[in-house]
Amino acid sequence: MTTTKPNHIGRKIARIRELRGMKQEALAHELGISQQSVSHMEQSESLEDSKLEEVAKVLGVTKEGIENFSEEAIFNIISNTYHNTSNDNSSLIASSLNYQPTFNTVEKIVELYERLVQAEKDKVSYLEELLKKK
């Protein structure tokens, strides 16, 4: 068994891109680079801060979000949120009803919605600029 370094930035970028449902080609287009360059970047253990900032913006996360991304944390969130030990959904419903987050869920939803709206506005302005150039 080989162990992988936990701070492999390229793998984190690739995983976040996959979770966002984005292909390498789309990320490449947004960054103005080739798909091969994205592939090379995702194989790189580190990335210069300015490039990481650029990638983070396209992926709709912060630079720190990429640096601190952990697949394990995602699995922990999922497993701590839903515990279904029986064949019916009663325990799933019970655990969902007893779930008490340590943050204000409404604020989080609003924050995520605002980030989504901003990302869409950024895409629209980017596409408008592309059309002006033609």
TrEMBL record:
<dbReference type="Pfam" id="PF01381">
    <property type="entry name" value="HTH_3"/>
</dbReference>
<dbReference type="InterPro" id="IPR010982">
    <property type="entry name" value="Lambda_DNA-bd_dom_sf"/>
</dbReference>
<feature type="domain" description="HTH cro/C1-type">
    <location>
        <begin position="13"/>
        <end position="66"/>
    </location>
</feature>
<protein>
    <submittedName>
        <fullName>DNA-binding XRE family transcriptional regulator</fullName>
    </submittedName>
</protein>
<dbReference type="InterPro" id="IPR001387">
    <property type="entry name" value="Cro/C1-type_HTH"/>
</dbReference>
<keyword id="KW-0238">DNA-binding</keyword>
<dbReference type="GO" id="GO:0003677">
    <property type="term" value="F:DNA binding"/>
</dbReference>
